[in-house]
Design brief:
The structure is a homodimer. Chain A is built from 14 helices and 14 strands. Chain A is an alpha/beta fold. The structure holds a DNA duplex.
DNA sequence: GGTCTTAATGTAAGCGCTTAGATTCCAAAA
DNA sequence: TTTTGGAATCTAAGCGCTTACATTAAGACC
């Protein structure tokens, strides 16, 4: 292995000079620089990352923790991972902009039995990005005291750790408002996910608030699913079994995977979507636009979640000790045809934050409308595809 | 920051002892061990990765290089990335089994202008995994002289670097054989991808060989696409424009993305799949089973590609200097209904390697049949879903 | 009690790099 | 010629860990 010393010796200079040449900054005579560069090239020298990290007291690596699906073999539920893959791409972009690297760790379970590995990881990175609820809170805290940590997608009310998340509540409200006001749907079925997932709690809140605000509207049943296509199929079957005689007007699924499963089950049973029953998802993962009908959903800015989380983390590394904040990113309503909009519809509309969503406080251009009504109106008025976006909101928890 | 010295001092022992306690191996009196462990716990000590790497002369990190799609914003073509995401998951599994870490780097272009970053990366890892053609050959060679490198998915005939790839040729042959022998298709349209992609070259070879072996069969046209859904739509439109009057019997797409695009274009034009024209894809990315009809394709063992590449790399790090080898993994034929099989078909059949494919040499249970015929027969005989798999073939290039 | 053996622990030399501070060089000023 | 003030370069002290080797402690045995 070629070291700095080899280069220095060969070029007849000191290691300090070589180091300076490599980092380009300091004043080195041109002739010296040239000589050194030539030797570096000839010897194929590449600085050792570990030694650099040790010496600089900075690794320039950030860690990203994913949950590995339990089942290793190819499996439809891998689609779950689409979400994190997209987030990761955002992180990747954020990280490499600054020339840093991304260290990925796949955890096996969500229950934190892998904590020793995580802890160990914290010695290899300058900061960590973790999906919400991937690591139980108490363990998270222990991690936080070693390295800066930013949690991606979680409760916007979190006060103990930095969080970057999307405005799930407003998205859900916009979706339901659209179903009610644009398509006159009144009786809803809710294909929900696990009760404890923070994002879902918010979606539930959005849904309930809108329902309550519209007299005559109600939820006629719900299914406790688990966010997978398979689980969606089960939700669909359960729906048919319990409400087959009088179908709801619309099914609101906790995410797109479930919506896809539900669509399969309904179609299988000869129920037409959206004629017999409307259907909406959440997240806007790609396959959602492939089904027939394509699924109306809410676009989560997954990529941007990754990027913002990364930026937040970098900031925390520079100025540690600031009070944790939550950053809530705006979402878009994505109208396709499973909600009842005409076939061929493909519209993407910024969602106006609802009252109580973290975004609402800072507001954006259209803010001030009392609820998601604004969105429904916008929806009918076929705005241009790429409407101007509001800035993400920065809120200090207090 | 807490260091080993802090722990040693606090516990009243030497750093050597602490180090021994941490690594569990050496003989340390139980009482000492306990005392040290307690201090470690109390202080929340975590060893510094950089220092460990430097001292051990091993980083226990392997690098994985991806190509970042040029367009950063959300974009249907991200689906391209499904492939690498899946591979990466395999790599992740392989890596974490051994307790190592995975360093991801997103490159912007495929043309190697990012080489300095790559080169630098090689100083931070013990080995690298690179997608085929992501890095131009000459640059690859320069990388190889610094760290072990394994290329994923590429020409099985490669002799200058280690490669782990899938048996594209046999997969493609099996697909076309199935179309001919099970569904009597004779006139083919080929929606191809870029000419230089190694995997596609293999697929082309498989296609051509089977066509040639069946008198009366021929390719009536082809489209030079670029593996994206959009490109598939264009291929479909081009097909309709040039052969609308007398459609081919079947369209063979270079990958599933293109097949999906083609399906959209055909459906749009009122052409029925598979009644009017059969359609097949390649890769078996998840959304392929969501379309209507679901797309018949060839399953690439993406996850396993990642795992095997990882294993190969580990091996290379232990015993460098061995002659580069290619490892070709078997593929499965995935029958759904876009090929003409009845709706509801969902069958997965191991593909018998064709002559000339690298796998054929070592063969598997069914090897010895002269071509892919064996597959076609198997296909009709509705075997159990999970048939026993042959071992991947190890071939030393010579 | 002394000697020997072995288990337990300590000492200190790196690993390859960065960088503060010391030194040398060189040309302009005196 | 001698000063002198930068610019260019060098010296060497870490960074936090591992580990070969040295030392000490504790029995075992005579």
């Amino acid at each position: 292995m070629i070291t700095l010393y080899d280069v220095a010796r060969e070029a007849g200079v000191s290691t300090a000079t070589v180091s300076r040449v490599i980092h380009g900054q300091d004043r080195v005579r041109d002739v010296t620089r040239q000589r050194v560069n030539e030797v570096i090239e000839r010897l194929g020298y590449v600085p050792d990352g570990a030694a650099q990290s040790l010496s600089r007291r900075r690794k320039e690596i950030i860690g990203f923790v994913c949950v590995e699906s339990r089942a290793r073999q190819y499996d439809v539920e891998n689609m779950n991972l689409l979400y994190y893959d997209e987030v990761m791409r955002g992180v990747g972009a954020g990280v490499s902009d600054s020339g840093w690297s991304l260290l990925i760790t796949y955890l096996n379970g969500e229950n934190g039995q892998d904590f020793p590995r995580l802890r160990n990881l914290s010695g290899k990175v300058d900061g960590m990005l973790i999906g919400h609820a991937v690591v139980p809170s108490p363990l998270l805290a222990r991690l936080t005291e070693r390295v800066p940590v930013v949690v991606i997608a979680g409760a916007p009310g979190e006060t103990t750790v930095d969080v970057v998340t999307a405005d799930n509540r407003s998205g859900s409200a916009a979706l339901v408002t659209h179903l009610i006001e644009a398509h006159g749907r009144k009786r809803f079925y809710h294909a929900d996910g696990p009760a404890h997932v923070a994002d879902l709690k918010e979606r539930r809140l959005g849904l309930e608030r809108v329902i309550r605000a519209h007299p005559g509207c109600r939820v006629i049943g719900s299914f406790p699913g688990e966010l997978s296509v398979q689980s969606g199929v089960e939700a669909g079957e359960s729906l048919l079994a319990s409400h087959g005689a009088s179908l709801p007007d619309a099914v609101v699924a906790a995410n797109d995977q479930m919506a896809i499963g539900i669509l399969q089950a309904l179609t299988q049973a000869g129920v037409r979507v959206p004629e017999d029953v409307a259907l909406v998802g959440f997240d806007d993962i790609y396959p959602g636009c492939l089904s027939d009908p394509p699924i109306t959903t809410v676009h989560q800015p997954m990529r941007m979640l990754g990027e913002r989380a990364c930026i937040r983390l970098m900031d925390r590394m520079v100025r540690p000790g600031l009070r944790p904040r939550a950053e809530v990113l705006p979402v878009d309503l994505v109208l396709r045809s499973s909600c009842g909009c005409p076939p061929g519809t493909a519209m993407r509309l910024p969602v106006t934050p609802v009252r109580g969503s973290r975004l609402a406080r800072t507001g954006n251009g259209a803010a001030g409308l009392s609820t998601a009504d604004g969105v429904a109106r916008t929806a009918r008025a076929a705005r241009p595809q790429r409407a101007p976006r509001s800035q993400p909101a920065e809120i200090t928890e207090s």
